[in-house]
Structures are given as C-alpha cells and as structure tokens.
Design goal:
The structure is a homodimer. With about 90 residues, chain A is mainly α. The first copy, chain A, has one domain (about 5-94). Chain A is about 75% helix and about 0% strand. Chain A has helices spanning about 10-25, 30-50, 55-80, 80-94. Chains A and B meet through helix 1, helix 2, helix 3 and helix 4 of A and helix 1, helix 2, helix 3 and helix 4 of B.
Chain lengths: ~90, ~90
C-alpha cells in the first residue's frame, strides 16, 4: 500500500490542510463543509472505480471504509503517532 | 461496541469539537496542538489500561490503532457518511 507516500513531503502538507478543512466542516462552517464534502465525494468516486465489487453501491461503501481507515491512521500521524499509525494501517489492509 | 453512542447527542457535539481541534493541531496551531496531544494521550492511556496485552507498549499500540479506526469512522460520520461509517466500524471491530 502507498500509505507511507501520504505522510511525506507535499502530501503530508496537503493532508494537514485536509484535516484543518475537515475540522471546520465538522462544526458546520461554510464553505468548508461543502468543500470537504465535494472533495470527499471525488475521492470516494475515484477509489470506488478502482474497486472490483458486485455492485456500484458496494464499491462505494468499500471505498468509504478504506478512506475511513486511511484518514484514521493519517490523523494519528498528524498528532505525532507516526510509527503506530503505520503499523495500524499495515495490519488493517493486509 | 459502543460506537453508535459516540454519534448521538452530547457525544456527537464533543467529537465535532474534537475534529475542529485536531484540524488546527494538524496545521501546528498552538495551543490546539498541545491540547489535542494531551487529550489523545489521556484517551490512549485510558484505553490501554483496559486492553489485555503482553506488554504495556503493545497495549498502547493496540489502543492507538483502535482510536485510529474509531476516529476514521467518526470523521466519515461527521462528513455525512453516517451509515457507511457504522458498517465500516462494525466490520473493523468484529
């Protein structure tokens, strides 16, 4: 899995901004909430198209579950638990 | 698992504020970063004490992985994907 790439260089800065956006979205600030929703939808669609599932709804649900796992690990990384986040994602996706 | 309780009433509002705090922490704002770090450490300690593992380090690592999974699902819930977040957490923890 490409997880380590998401914690390095430009991607690391992008995800820090993603969490900042998500935080403002969680407390219902606009336009952050609409923007985070649109970005997440694009991400789900992109990933769902790459998942081999019986139905489109199943592929979308799997994509959301994968993104939840990924975001959870990245969140721990951004709060300083980099090593454990890496092991968690490796065991969740093997 | 008590997951649904975390998405209702007072807990739902608390986690929205948690994600707001985490977002500011991710972009290195202070005191949010220190505060989020301390809250996360307390949460990890509380959970690690309730995990039966061979070593304390293992219990802490397991606690962080569980919190990553939980936070990932809650993040999807706070961005509007409540149903899929619930299924994801159920399959991750069964």
């Amino acid at each position: 899995m490409a997880y380590p790439l998401l914690t390095e260089g430009e991607a690391d800065r992008i995800f820090a901004l993603w969490f900042e956006l998500v935080g403002q979205a969680a407390v219902h600030q606009e336009p952050q909430r609409s923007l985070a929703g649109s970005m997440l939808d694009l991400w789900i669609e992109w990933l769902a198209e790459r998942i081999d599932a019986r139905t489109r709804a199943r592929a979308r649900a799997d994509a959301i579950a994968m993104i939840a796992t990924l975001d959870g690990a990245l969140l721990m990384h951004h709060l300083g638990h980099t090593e454990v986040a890496k092991s968690a994602i490796v065991s969740a996706t093997r």
